[in-house]
Amino acid sequence: MYQWRKFEFFEEKFSGKVADDITGKIQCCSSGKGRIVLGCDDGSASLLDRGLKFNYGFQAHSSSVLFLQQLKQRNFLVTVGEDEQISPQSSAVCLKIFDLDKMEPEGTSTSTPDCIQILRIFTNQFPEAKITSFLVLEEAPPLLLIAIGLDNGSIYCIQGDIARERIKRFKLQVDNHSDKSQSSISGLGFRVDGQTLQLFAVTPNSVNLFNMHTQSPTRQTLDQIGSSVTSVAMTDRSEFIIGRPEAIYFYEVDGRGPCWAFEGEKKFLGWFRGYLLCVFADQRTGNNTFNVYDLKNRLIAHSIVVKEVSQMLCEWGNIILILEDKSTLCIGEKDMESKLDMLFKKNLYTVAINLVQSQQADAAATAEVLRKYGDHLYSKQDFDEAMAQYIHTIGHLEPSYVIQKFLDAQRIHNLTNYLEKLHEKGLASKDHTTLLLNCYTKLKDVEKLNEFIKSEDGVGEQKFDVETAIRVCRAANYHEHAMSVAKKAGRHEWYLKILLEDLGRYEEALQYISSLELSQAGVTVKEYGKILIEHKPAETVEILMRLCTEETELPKKGTSSSAFISMLPSPIDFLNIFVHYPQALLEFLEKYTIKVKDSSAQVEIHNTLLELYFSHDLDFPSISQSNIDESGNDLAHKPLKAVSNGRAILVKKDVNDEKGRQERRGKGLTLLKSAWPSELEQPLYDVDLAIILCEMNDFKEGLLFLYEKMKLYKEVIACYMQVHDHEGLIACCKRLSDLGKGGDSSLWADLLKYFGELGEDCSKEVKEILTYIERDDILPPIVVLQTLAKNPCLTLSVIKDYIARKLERESQLIDEDRRAIEKYQEESSTMRKEIQDLRTNARIFQLSKCTACTFTLDLPAVHFMCMHSFHQRCLGDNEKECPECAPEYRAVLETKRSLEQSSKNPDQFFQLVQSSKDGFSVIADYFGKGIISKTSNGHAEALRSGSASSSNDF
User: Which residue would you say has higher pLDDT here, 383 or 636?
Assistant: First the structure.
């Protein structure tokens, strides 16, 4: 004990005297429910509040109070004391239970709680003996278990609802010596572990344990040496403590446990918040000393010399000593901060660490103590031990605090150790990973670097920031380590970046891409395709073909081919990687179109192919098909040389030769035609783009095809006109002017105008054109003359035959018109005479037969003005119209009605005028049929306004 360090972790809270109201000698005490209860030899029980202030007292027993206990779960007080004997045969000792919440209604000034039960302890079956110890266990309210130890080695137990006297009594026998001083029960202790209930019992000769959960309790002797003094206690871990002059012993269910050699007679033992309390008589000085022991840390937390102690108990978080002279001493524990400050001032950091750990302080408080200890060791330049303390603070102390202290190159080993621990606990940031890897590279510790990065257990993936590790390893030229991290973490973009940009291992990069999943491979090729195309174009194109067509993998079951193709990447997604390599792009797209016929992106693909096909020069500065030798090596930067007269002459192959250009244009024209089949209204490419490409690159064949498919016939002949291809121009007009095939005959008028303005001799072409104009009656002769008169190189002989034929034809038409006029005039004159005759002269009907039945006409008969006669029976209901002439008459009326109806539709009239070769003939026809002259004024005005607005169209 004298080797243990002493500290003042406790302090005196207050001291004083017990209230004067307590006149008897204090024989027992108990605490609970926020108060202290004292039992005196005059039979009184006194209740003290906080600060040991007297609350009230009452007469519990008539003679004296021997033992008492305040229950924890209910506000009951159990006392054992002596009362007046009822008879000589009965004992004066009895047990009482008081309900402190109920007071007896008395007229006196004192307050007396209600005594709810009085039990006689000793009966005929349980003979009287001296009570040496008393203990109450609250099993489950209202059940109690009371153990009463006697000087004859017996323990009387009373169990049940004692307040209602529903109890059972039984006896436990420990020792049975004739000498009562050797068999007296000096201490009891209940041990509750779940459903297990056990009772420790101490005599001067033994320590015993009773198993109370069995039907008949069994006894087990734990030690053959006991104690004669009543200095026993129970720890919060259910250990039984016995004090003997030489030491203090701890007992568990299996026997004696640890022993602490504290000399001196142990008068009182207690347990408070993990501390051992002991009042003992110091043999050297003859004084009584009260010590508080911290057994875990082997130190004396408090020590004070006291007078003779009467009682010791704990309440309100304090230790209370009641001395024989009725003075009191209240001792309380200091707060953790005060205790630590005390230790820090003495540089007792180890003690401080043990203290916070033993008292289960929070992790932050423990880390603060460890930090201060580390700072102390650091100031003494004990860097290894200081780092050991700082490592324990990980998770609570800011890592930068420690890192700053060890940034010196001479302490890089300590810093590396700390950073490793940070990563092991998953608390490292990107900066910590960077610093740790820099430490490894500075130390050239490849083994540690391998262990950190290439750990086979896979935990390394989660211990550090992957991107940071890769970046640091690359900067330090540890490319293999960076690749290992990237591959394990699935960071394919970093893996390829290192392979391509740092190591230039293109073949390996291509193999790695081939091993990736479809979606991931597509992403990586988009990012690094330019580099791969530059150095390995053929292999890259093959990779792209596998990505876009998935040649090696069949569609999943239940998935159609077209649906599967739509799930694959589109070639359009990879166009950006071919920016400087159009030849490779051309090969890729050609292969794709051969392989996939119904791609969802075929319009964009065809547009790109057309742009490549029609380009005048395939600009291919870096690499081309000719730059790849038979083994696939890049010759772009290895120009061929020829030796002439001893000097090296650079030989540059012309990649834009005319033959290649013609081949591309042939493919382009084939694509234009194949991608616009006759059954489709719109082609599988952008028509406007195709026209622009053909215009920009002067591709006449493509333009002609597109214009013809779009029925832009005037643009077609304009192409021939631009190049003055007269033969082709006329041949084209012959093909495109056929109205039966949807052609446009007005093209001949455009050709005539072209040759009329040409300014050179083109008599042969004009004569041929005039043949078709005359055949289809496209233009009147006056217009032909006006058009050709503009060309000074043409003579009258060119059109002499044409004019002669036209004049002859016109003369014939005039003669035909005159004959028709004379015929119509004669018919009109005859009709007028007939009308006049009908109006002025009588008609004589001489028909003898019925027109309908051809039988002899008899009465009744009906005669019509048209000179037809009928039996009345043959007419039926139709008596007002001639059956023979009525259909013809109705047809005339229907024609007249339709003409009148059409006169109300001016749009139809103007449409006929515009579409007719001779608009005047349409107007004349309308006047001739009497349509215009017979319309209303409003309709006539509308026609006149419409005619005026469209006069330019005639």
Answer: 383
Cα–Cα dist 305/289, whole Å: 4
Domain ranges of the chain: 276-333, 341-550, 752-838
Q: How far apart are CA 115 and CA 43, in angstroms?
A: 14
| Per-residue pLDDT tens digits for 696-718 | 888 888 888 887 777 787 887 78
Nearest CA-CA partner of 24 in 82, 99, 86:
82
What DSSP state is assigned to residue 758? Answer: S
Q: Average model confidence (pLDDT) for the chain? A: 79
- Across the beta sheet with 265-272, the strand order is 5-6, 299-306, 288-294, 275-281, 265-272
Cβ atoms 481, 502 nearer than 8 A:
no
Contact 580/660 with Cβ under 8 angstroms? Answer: no
- From the list 590, 578, 582, the residue with the least C-alpha distance to 670 is 590
Task: State the greatest distance between any 2 C-alpha atoms of the chain, in Å, as a whole number.
Answer: 184
Please state, as a whole number, how many other Cβ atoms lie within 10 Å of the Cβ of residue 802. Answer: 19
**What count of other Cβ atoms lies within 10 Å of the Cβ of residue 630?**
5
Contact, 791 vs 758, CB < 8 A?
yes
653 dihedral zone (left: phi>0; alpha: psi -120 to 50; beta): beta
Residue type, 538: A
Q: Residue ranges of the alpha helices (H) in 128-208?
A: 180-183
For residue range 14-58, list pLDDT tens digits in order: 888 888 888 889 999 999 888 999 999 999 999 998 888 888 899
Average pLDDT of the residues in 455-464:
49
Rounded to 5 degrees, φ, ψ at 893 are -65, -40
C-alpha gyration radius of the chain: 63
Give the per-residue SS3 of 514-569. HHCCHHHHHHHHHHHHHHHHHHCHHHHHHHHHHHHHCCCCCCCCCCCHHHHHHHCC
pLDDT at 532 over 90: no
CATH topology of domain 341-550: 1.25.40
| Both tokens assigned to 359 | 């008292």
Tokens 């920009």 identify what position? 696
In sequence order, the β-bridge partners of residue 146 are 136, 158
Residue 928 has pLDDT above 60, yes or no: yes
8 A C-beta contact, residue 548 and residue 569: yes
Q: Are 38 and 54 in contact (CB under 8 A)?
A: no
Which residues make Cβ contacts (< 8 Å) with residue 65, sequence separation at least 6? 27, 28, 39, 40, 41, 43, 44, 45, 79, 80, 81
Helices vs. strands in the chain: H and E counts, helices first: 33, 33
Side chain identity at 39, as an amino acid letter? G
State how beta strands 218-223 and 232-234 pair. Answer: unpaired
CB 454 within 8 A of CB 489: no
Residues 292 and 276 sit within 8 Å (Cβ to Cβ): yes
Per-residue confidence at 748, pLDDT binned at 50, 70, 90? confident
Query: Which amino acid is residue 497, in one-letter code?
Result: K
Burial class (CB in 10 A: 0-12, 13-18, 19+), 332: middle
Q: Which residue has the tokens 């034809």?
A: 809
Question: In this predicted model, what pLDDT tens digit does every residue of 195-209 receive, in sequence order?
Answer: 889 999 999 889 999
- For residue 682, what are its two tokens? 């719109």
Q: DSSP per residue over 406-469, as a string?
A: T-SGGGHHHHHHHHHHHHHTT---HHHHHHHHHHHHHHT-HHHHHHHHS-TTSTHHHHS-HHHH
Angle, CA 266 vertex, CA 263 and CA 271 arms, to 5°: 110
pTM value? Answer: 0.52
How many angstroms separate the CA atoms of 257 and 1, rounded? 19
The winner for highest mean pLDDT among 168-182, 350-364, 382-396, 738-752 is: 382-396
Q: How far apart are CA 61 and CA 97, in angstroms?
A: 11
8 Å CB contact between 580 and 553: no
